[in-house]
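User: Can you recover a sequence for this backbone? Please restate the input before giving your answer.

Assistant: Of course. Working from this structure:
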């Protein structure tokens, strides 16, 4: 994500590279398995079914003429938007369904994700203690000065697109790896590794200076506590979380630390940036109310002439995924969007609560849902919900929760087989020990 800052501009957008990778993986997955029919059925499971509602509405936006511009511009903008907001979720669901079928594969995934997360944290630590390099300073001066130097506090962004994306991604990762640390029992090394990643992610979240990341972390932890079905975990997390929020909201403890000061400003009702957001929100509402189906998918400022009354909506910075959807898809679109993603999270939660029997696998899936819910909440305050690679990391992995049903059956079958083999071996050993006694008696 940070390559463009260093002049390594890719000839085509990174989203297109990702789609080409998805295509290659799908062709390989379907062509190298005799079970392609079963895999195709898994690919179009319950998660994909509920997402079809948003897909249908998003497709209809191709004929949304409310922005009062020519149809060619609308269709071109819609096509680019449709790939990002809709198709990439399908690609991820299908790829995951083709390749993930055993619990052991999840461990490999979490280790790879963990090492990449540590790399992101290390890059931010380098920025914090060794300073920004020449290219990063150039980007800050040209693009990020207003958003990354706030009230004398520097916000660190690692190699992500910006500090908000970095901070929310680290908050959601902290939820996932915290859950893995609490539930992993098969390997002490893996458990330690997950704990380190969780702590590093939490530190990265604070270094980002993203105030909304605090609520993202809280939402993810709350979701995990409910899904874990452990009263002690729920009570402990609630008490510790309440004490931490109370410290930020009602005390001046740690005020000398820049990261704590930045987080504390999230509870300041008189904060200037928060006031500006509220003013912009009120202004946008007046325009959005006139467009029940939105401005149109992908419409940008350059698409709408300055003399057109829709120019303001096309140029205003939405600041959040939810507001972005509201502007371009209307109130109806926002409702369907939230219903679709909320529905997928609800389906995954039901599977974890009532379908999975293996405690370790259930804990893994609870962590994934917690991270996805955290990023879902992050979409309320930041426009990062479907940015690369958040879709694959947090929403695409919801498909793994559906696939976990088959994984759970395999775990139980393997356990039953192992117990049967152990019982047969014990019986054989018992018979062997009895046979010499019988022969001696004879």
């Amino acid at each position: 994500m940070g390559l463009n800052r260093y002049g390594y501009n890719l000839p085509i957008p990174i989203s297109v590279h990702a789609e080409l990778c998805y295509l290659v993986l799908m062709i390989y997955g379907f062509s190298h398995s005799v079970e392609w029919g079963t895999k195709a059925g898994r690919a179009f499971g319950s998660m994909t079914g509920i997402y079809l509602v948003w897909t249908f509405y998003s497709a209809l936006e191709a004929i949304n003429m409310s922005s009062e511009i020519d149809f060619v511009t609308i269709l071109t903008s819609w096509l680019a938007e449709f790939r990002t907001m809709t198709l990439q979720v399908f690609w991820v669901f299908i790829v995951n369904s083709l390749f993930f079928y055993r619990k052991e594969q999840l461990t490999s995934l979490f280790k790879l994700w963990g090492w990449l997360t540590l790399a992101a944290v290390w890059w931010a630590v380098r920025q914090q203690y060794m300073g920004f390099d020449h290219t990063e300073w150039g980007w800050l001066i040209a693009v990020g000065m207003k958003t990354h130097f706030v009230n004398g506090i520097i916000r660190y962004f690692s190699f992500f697109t910006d500090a908000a994306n970095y901070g929310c991604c680290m908050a959601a990762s902290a939820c996932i790896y915290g859950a893995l640390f609490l539930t992993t029992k098969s390997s002490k090394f893996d458990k330690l590794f997950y704990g380190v990643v969780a702590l590093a992610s939490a530190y990265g979240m604070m270094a980002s200076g993203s105030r909304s990341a605090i609520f993202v972390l809280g939402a993810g932890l709350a979701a995990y506590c409910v899904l874990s079905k452990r009263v002690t975990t729920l009570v402990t997390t609630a008490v510790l979380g309440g004490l931490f929020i109370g410290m930020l909201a009602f005390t001046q403890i740690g005020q000398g630390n820049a990261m704590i000061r930045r987080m504390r400003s999230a509870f300041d009702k008189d904060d200037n940036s928060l006031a500006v957001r509220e003013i912009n929100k009120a202004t946008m509402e007046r325009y959005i109310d006139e467009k029940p189906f939105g401005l149109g998918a992908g419409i940008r400022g350059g698409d709408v002439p300055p003399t057109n009354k829709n120019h303001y909506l096309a140029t205003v910075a939405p600041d959040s995924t939810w507001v972005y959807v509201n502007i371009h898809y209307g109130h109806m679109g926002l409702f369907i969007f939230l219903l679709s993603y909320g529905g997928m999270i609800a389906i995954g939660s039901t599977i974890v609560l009532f379908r999975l029997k293996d405690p370790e696998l259930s804990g893994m899936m609870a962590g994934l849902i917690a991270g996805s819910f955290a990023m879902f909440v992050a979409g309320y305050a930041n426009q990062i919900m479907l940015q690369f690679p958040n879709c694959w990391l947090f929403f695409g992995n919801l498909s793994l929760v559906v696939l976990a049903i088959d994984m759970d059956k395999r775990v139980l079958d393997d356990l039953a087989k192992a117990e049967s083999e152990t019982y047969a071996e014990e019986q054989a050993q018992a018979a062997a020990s009895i046979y010499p006694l019988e022969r001696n008696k004879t």
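That completes the design. The chain has a mean pLDDT of 82.
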